Each structure stands twice: as C-alpha cells, then as structure tokens.
Amino acid sequence: MATIIDGKAISMQIKDECKEKVAKLKSEGKSVALAVIQVGEDPASSVYVNNKKKACEYIGAESLSYHLPEETSEEELLELIDKLNKDEKVNGILVQLPVPKHINEDLIIRSIDPDKDVDGFHPINVGRLSIGEKGFVSCTPAGIIELLKRSGVEIAGKECVVIGRSNIVGKPMSMLMLRENATVTICHSRTKDLKEVTKRADILIVAIGKPKMIDASYVKEGAVVIDVGIHRPDPDSKKLCGDVDYDSVEPVASLITPVPGGVGPMTIAMLMSNLVNG
Ligand code: NAP
How far is CA 28 from the centre of its chain? Predict the structure, then answer.
C-alpha cells in the first residue's frame, strides 16, 4: 500500500510560509501585489482567477484585478501589460490563459517583464531554468519538487521518467529533476515501448492528459508516482481523475499523489511562493 502525498496539506504549509513572509515584508514597509488579467468570459478561467485572488487575500498580498471584455484588442492588452511592467507597486503579472483567438498568446507572454513573470512562462525564465540561473519557474512542476522534498523523497541519483513534454509541465519538470541531480528520461507520444521505459522509473511523473492511462503495468514496484493530470471523466459527475489509474497503481507504488488533492493545489501555492520570493 502506498503512502498518499497530501498536496492539500503541503500547499497550505507553503501558503502559510508565504503569509509569514508577506507580514515580514509589510513590517519593513514593503507591499506585495499581483496583477491578474483575464480577457473574456471563459468560465474555467473565471474559477482559476477567483482562486488566485483568494490565495492572495489569504497570504495578505494585494491582488489587482483586470477583467477585460472578449473584444479587447491585442494592442490594448499590450498597453495594459506595459503599464503594469512600469508600475513599481506591482510585483507579479499574470495573464490568465487561454486568451481569445485574435490575441497572440506568445506575444503576450513575451511582453511581461521577466522579473514580474510569476507564471514562469517567459522565454527568458525558461532559459534561466535551463542554464541553472535563478528565475521564475512554472508553478506546477515547481510544486511537484516541493511535494517530493517535503515528503522526504530523495531525488539525487534516482531514475526519473517524465511522461509529457509540454512547455508548462513536462519540459520544465524534466529540467527541475535534472537540477535536483536525478537521471531523467522524457517520454512523449513518439516514445517506443513506453512501458519498458516507465518501468525503470524510481520516480514516475505523469503529464499526458489522458484519463487513467497509466496503470500498474507501467510502474515498477516501490516507485514514487506523481499524477499531474486532471480530468472530469463524466460531465455529470463531480468526481475527478488523473492520468494515472489510481486504484491499479496505488498497491504497487511506495508513494502516490491522489487526484484531487495531490498536484492540483500546489500550482496556486507555488504562484504565491513565486510572488513573494521572486
Ligand atoms: P499537453 O500539452 O497535452 O501534453 C501532453 C504530453 O503528453 C505531450 O508531450 C504528448 O506528447 C504526451 N503524450 C500524449 N499521449 C501520449 C502517449 N500515448 N504516450 C506518451 N506520451 C503521450 O498537456 P499538459 O498541459 O502538459 O498537461 C498534462 C496533464 O496535466 C493534463 O491532464 C492537464 O489537465 C494537467 N495539468 C494539471 C495542472 C495542475 O495544476 N495540476 C497544470 C497543468 C496541467 P507529444 O508532445 O508527442 O504530443
């Protein structure tokens, strides 16, 4: 039976540390503010934005909210970002993705001052990560490192397999595990004999975006299994599942993250950590 990695509890620890840091900064006369920009009315984005504002409130940081109409032009959005880049009171800027189709997402990401890019998506921050320089790191993979470390998982020297090579999860995850001195293998849709590779993993990190695809036949006995996926398999049900078939893998793994309550809560906690420590 695996030990469950409690992402909810660990994310609370991190938010409480951020709260303490904000109080300390305030006592030194410094403020902490996150600018959150949403364009349009995507309901999922509204939920995410709301959760980010609530997290700011919890840690005592200010959140400056900019909810722009769907028809906002790229130029108008760039002007707002430019204004926020120059505003000394703003420590972090976040544009909730996706933006409407008439706006170039890459251009928007690149227009944010890299030193205020709390999402860690700007190519300068991606480059800093790959050459081992300090910079903002994408929140979900940064959260996974915290989950591992705070659960007492030794990373150095371990075989780590990451399934997925997206810019926001798989690639930065692999760079972070490398930085922690794991031996890292990255798998993707063209990987031949996925099982043969994943069965070598001491630490298996799954970010495929396919509900319950990874069952026990992909997992070495005693592996640590981190499930990044979030899916609602049945639109009528409130139950969520991950990319890992939890019931199948849990008896084989030594530690495992559940869905929900594993990786999910870490993303916002690390956003707060980026805001406060960046
Ligand atoms: P993504 O952009 O769709 O990337 C999926 C990756 O999986 C791609 O690299 C793809 O390979 C690879 N892949 C797909 N099918 C495969 C297969 N059969 N065998 C091996 N590799 C395969 O997804 P993402 O944005 O990284 O997100 C992954 C999952 O994490 C999703 O479920 C998402 O909802 C979830 N997520 C959760 C959080 C959180 O806060 N917990 C944050 C972000 C994402 P190719 O590159 O070859 O296409």
Answer: 30
Rounded to whole angstroms, the Cα distance separating 78 from 32 reads 23
Query: What is the largest distance, in Å, between two alpha-carbon atoms of the chain?
Result: 57
Q: Which residues line ligand 1 (CB under 6 A)?
A: 140, 163-166, 168-170, 187-191, 194, 207-210, 228-230, 243, 263-264, 267
CA distance 198 to 186: 10
pLDDT tens-digit series, residues 170-188: 999 999 999 999 999 999 9
Q: How far is the CA of 3 from the centre of ligand 1 (A)?
A: 25
Tokens of 53: 């504002």
Q: Summarize pLDDT for 185-198 with one digit per residue, the tens.
A: 999 999 999 999 99
Amino acid making up residue 12: M
Q: What is the dihedral of CA 39, 44, 136, 62, to 10 degrees?
A: 70
First to last CA, the chain: 38
What is the residue with the minimal CA distance to atom 48 of ligand 1?
A: 189
User: What's the 30 CA to ligand 1 centre distance in angstroms?
Assistant: 39
146, 189, 190, 241, best to mutate for ligand 1 pocket (most atoms within 8 Å of CB): 189
Looking at the DSSP bridge assignments, the partners of residue 224 are 203, 255
Beta bridge partners of 62: 33
Sequence-ordered list of residues with C-beta below 8 angstroms from that of 142, at least 6 positions apart, any chain: 120, 172, 176, 270, 273, 274
Strands (E), 197-264: 203-206, 224-227, 255-256
Whether pTM exceeds 0.70: yes
Closest Cα partner for 35 from 22, 16, 49? 49
Instruction: Give catalytic residue positions.
Output: 52, 96, 119
Task: Tell me phi and psi for residue 78, to 5 degrees.
Answer: -65, -40
